[in-house]
Amino acid sequence: QVQLVESGGGLVQAGGSLRLSCQASGSIRIINSMGWYRQAPGKQREWVASISNGILTNYADSVKGRFTISRDNAKNMVYLQMNSLKPEDTAVYYCKANIREAGLWNTLRDYWGQGTQVTVSS
Q1: Burial of 105 (0-12, 13-18, 19+ CB in 10 A)
Q2: Which H/E stretch holds residue 71?
């Protein structure tokens, strides 16, 4: 079974920084694209940033210039460096990875982490 676990969330003042991490583990043959999403209370989940299985990145307009996504393929990890945080960044942040599973069925699907809370105070 494949599992994604996020960490690094917490409380921070506006203008501060946090770095989120996501560790993928389990029966993994290869990880393709990875990304970060967030969901604030009462709002739909929105895409934040993504990174290819290389180094190509894309960002939502709301975070462009402030957030940086990166990955370490050798460690099956993806990171989200968040700088100049704003109260509107407050949300649960979720890691997503498109993964080809090892084993007989060679399954390809998206996996989601459990989420980590980011709270930015004004």
Answers
A1: exposed
A2: strand 67-72
Please tell me whether residue 52 adopts helix, strand or coil conformation.
coil
Identify which of 25, 30, 22 has the alpha carbon closest to the alpha carbon of residue 106.
30
Average pLDDT, stretch 88-94? 98
The upper half-sphere exposure of residue 31, i.e. CA atoms within 13 Å in the direction of its Cβ, equals: 31
pLDDT of residue 85: 98
Phi, psi of 95 (to 5 degrees): -95, 140
For the record, the structure tokens of 113 come out as 């982490």
- Which residue's structure tokens are 């940086």? 68
Query: What is the strand order of the sheet 18-25 is part of?
Result: 3-7, 18-25, 77-82, 67-72
